[in-house]
Amino acid sequence: MSGGLPMSNHPPVPLLDIKDLTVEFSTRRGIVRAVQNIDLQVAKGETVGIVGESGSGKSVTSFAVMRILDRAGRIAEGSVTFSGIDVRAADDSQMRDLRGREMSMIFQNPRAALNPIRKVGVQIEDVLRQHAQADSDAITSKAIEILDQVRIARPRERYHAYPFELSGGMCQRVVIALALACKPQLLIADEPTTGLDVTTQKTVMDLVTELTRERGMSTILITHDLGLAAVYCDRVVVMEKGHVVESAVSAAIFKAPAHPYTRKLMRATPRPGVGLRDLLPEEALPADEPLFRHARPCAGHPGLGNDTKDVDGRDKPGHDSEPLLVVEKLVKEYPRRGLTTSLSKLFQRGPAPEPDVFRAVDGISFTIARGESVGLVGESGCGKSTTSMMVMRLIDTTDGAIRFGGDDIGAIPAKEFATLPLRKRIQMVFQDPTDSLNPRFTAARAIADPILRLGDVRGRNAVRARCEELAAQVGLPVELLDRFPHQLSGGQKARVGIARAIALNPDLIILDEPTAALDVSVQAVVLNLLQDLKDTLGMSYLFVSHDLNVVRLLCDRVIVMQAGRIVEQGATGRVLFAPEAQYTRDLLAAIPHPPV
Amino acid sequence: MSEAALPKQGVHSSGLAATLKHARYIIGENPVTGFAFALFVLIVFAALLGPHIVPYDPLASNTAMALKPPSRAHWFGTDQLGRDVFSRVIAATRLDFIIAVFSVALVFLMGGLAGVAAGFFGGWTDRIVSRIADTIMAFPLFVLAMGIVAALGNTVQNIIIATAIVNFPLYARIARTEANVRREAGFVQAARLSGNGETRILLTQILPNIMPIMIVQMSLTMGYAILNAAGLSFIGLGVRPPDAEWGIMVAEGAAFMVSGEWWIAFFPGLVLMIAVFCFNLLGDGLRDIVDPQRRT
């Protein structure tokens, strides 16, 4: 059970008082207790972080406070008191008044939280009108004023913008504007910056902190990111499987975590000065496992130890001197089109007319040596995904060359490349393990797909044996091979995706944010797995990520991209510890770190 | 790797057994689905064995027994020629079922595949398929079916073709939308990396994923196809007397309603209604069974 809270630090009547709360869901397999007997107090003006991995019940707690649990869920025990009102007993009209005016919420996906077919300004007006916060004459100017408060540039123009016309960070600002429009006393931010770039995360979080402090509001910040909680919260509550396992002032919790689960979480969080192996829990470290021969104490030995020997004799002689992959002056242009552009030309509203093509990737050059892992880092829209898709030969290039093992694969149309033998030498691990598995294929069928199409293993039993071998290699229990993706956990699905990518012994694997959708403890295991596989199989990695902390752990070299160009590239240690470009410095500065 | 020697525990759970177990669960959870399935089995049974199990020859007339009300000997009464209505209703199941099954299979092959291709490939394929669908939808559908049968000739085969054409836009549009949203899904990209050509991706990745919704649609269309065939027969286009078919029996019996011989039209109409109802209920139950997301 949870330890007692240090009540003496807080005023006698907290703004939000959760006592002995239990939330149940009735499912096909009977009743599931998502949250069990938790206690939580939030004082006026306080910021409390609820930290935990997926399934810990942190979101369910906040839904119970707002009483927006779905039909299957109900508050089974305990009480929730918000500024003297018993939330559990309040009737629906009372709750409608409370929501939005007294407590409001910021959701994870800002685009999903906004109505796509209404102008953002009008959506703010809706909230104001709903809670009778402004009369109809002044409502437009009030909405513009609110947009201005959340630091949206040119609020008068943005008032007319639709959500799809705004970037993710801008959308989240609009959501914050909506949440704060009626000056609530409590703000619940449920993973408000997941999916946003680090620099955007910093500005959004700074904005939330500033606005809530100005107005003396209380905030509950729900996050899986310990660093974020450490930087922005006064107090942190750690949840695991529906229980509160630890609750303390944030400085204290990071200095001396009391509960083993908190220690495990902290250990698994990538942070400076820590190697890949350090992320795994202590008990999982076998004494003399061969994997640890390759353990690197810290990312400071870039470019060394690149195995240039042939992997399994497939390589053509004579190309050993040239790197595995050479990308030269690569360009991808997209035509600009759409109603908005032509309309803004017509009415001179919005930004000035732009050229007819958009350069997503603007003449970049880099190389990857055999056995090397290279990180491709940048924020969303910088062209890193476009680059990886071109190298992957899933989309065609506009200009430039991609030479792979001596062949100019950039010249081969993407459609034809799919069935060429070369295909099997470049594979990819996708960002979203759920989306990248066919929901109607079992794990075994998914792993077998490349083997059946391009592999040289024939016969039902031989293919099955190969699948089991691959499953063992990626640490997927063999009995899970006959399950469908929805019967597997996120980590297991990631393993299936990795097994599929290595099934053909490729020379190069592109890892597209392979751990972005995973919990930190799972991420730690998957990153270690990727390192082990590279050591055993001698592949090269192109690791596409926005997370510099993760890139540092796995990569020998780093390429930093911004707006379609490379702003900096070099050895990991050099780029991350002595960055030359201002942009790299900004990126590094924006990462929240727990105090060590 | 050291883990390579993991014990091989993965016993291949037979796909069929798992499906049956799942179907049992779904039917247990929703008795209406169970009822619809029972009815469906009954319809299939009647379609297969109908002519062999009926008490009287459905075509044999006996003017001495004409227009007799329902009795122990003739459960549904007899018609103007003295034919047993019960025997005719049962015997008609085969013809109506054949029309329904074949027209649905045909429209799935035409509309479903054209729609999936349109949604997946886009471009010209999409334009052509969509315009064909639009053109068909510009006609009043029953009138179009009438026209097709009138032009091609009054045969069962042409009823099937007409019903399929009339349903084409529905299938094409559903399949197109479902394929379109999956076009750039991660698993489709992954399939490209695995060396699958575009056509193979269409058939092995996209099509299986839109089958649940197509199967529901097929079940609903089965009911519609039976109604359509009955309607065509009712107005004299389609199955010709003396063949037994529900629509034509209602048409023949309608003339006698006024004089009080209600049973001639009532019983075929009732069975027609129950059959259509059954297919509609079945649609919902099927969706739950074929959707792997519901399997736990």
Can you characterise this structure?
The complex is a heterodimer of chains A (596) and B (296). Chain A contains 21 helices and 20 strands. Chain A is an alpha/beta fold and 596 residues long. In chain A, 46% of the residues are buried. The N terminus of chain A is likely disordered. Helix content of chain B is 72%, strand content 0%. In chain B, helix 8 runs antiparallel to helix 10. Chain B is globular, with a radius of gyration of 24 Å. Chain B starts with 14 loop residues before the first helix and ends in a 6-residue tail after the last helix. At the A-B interface, strand 16, helix 15, helix 16 and helix 17 of A face helix 7 and helix 8 of B.
Labels describing this entry:
heterodimer, A: 596 residues, alpha/beta, Rossmann fold, six-stranded mixed beta sheet, 21 helices, disordered N terminus, B: 296 residues, mainly alpha, 10 helices, 0% strand, globular
Number of domains of chain A: 2
Q: Please tell me how large the radius of gyration of chain A is.
A: 26 Å
- Please identify, by name, the CATH architecture of the largest domain in chain A: 3-Layer(aba) Sandwich
Main pleated sheet of chain A:
6 strands, mixed
List the secondary-structure elements of chain B in sequence, H or E: HHHHHHHHHH
Approximate helicity band of chain A: 25-40%
In short:
Chain A has 596 residues and is an alpha/beta fold.
